[in-house]
Amino acid sequence: MFLSLPTPAVVQEVARALIPAGPRIVVDLSTTGPRASIAVAQELEAAGIRFVDAPVSGGRAGALGARLALMVACPLPVWEDVRPLLALFGKTFHVGEGAGQAQTMKLVNNMLSVVALAATSEGMAMGVKAGLDPAVMLEVLNASSGKNSATTDKMPRAVLPGTFDFGFATQLSLKDMKLCLDEAEAAGVPMIVGPAARTMLNITQASYGPEADFTSMARVVEQWAGVQIRAER
Question: C-alpha 9: how far from its chain's center?
Fold first, then answer.
């Protein structure tokens, strides 16, 4: 059984409902955070059901094109069973044998993605206000040390054309950031930049609504700077 659900609570509810059906393996593709993943694994394994912690990254486009990155944590014998199926979704990475390890990897990835988008939005707005062509800016950044997931993908695909349709809702991004920061605090890892990026997401949600694409963060910066980050050619 494969699960892909929006929140930890929903994953736990559905996992419990699956127990009477007796699936041999449950693969969770959701982003729930390590503590929820461990709790679900313990409950399923007590019923004799193996659990695979397998969050994905790549968004809607990655899913449609079978180009997702799958971070997987499960015992090696189970990994050998599920690996051919997971490979149908994209590229797989076995990051450990314990439930929750893949969730930690996913939360780190998503936190860095949001931080990159927030910082890139600010830098691009600064350049545009100084008279730079944003398309040329991205060419330079992608050939330089400023290259990141926002400059290579999110900006050219969803911000420069003004569509803001990358395919990930602000409320879901906020959920992931909260999970990441909560886990970091529980682990005693200080985070300074992550909370700033979460604040930008909160402002984005307040301005454009929870269903707005998280690339709308750039719209917030545009409004503050009095410019639009749009392609001129």
Answer: 18
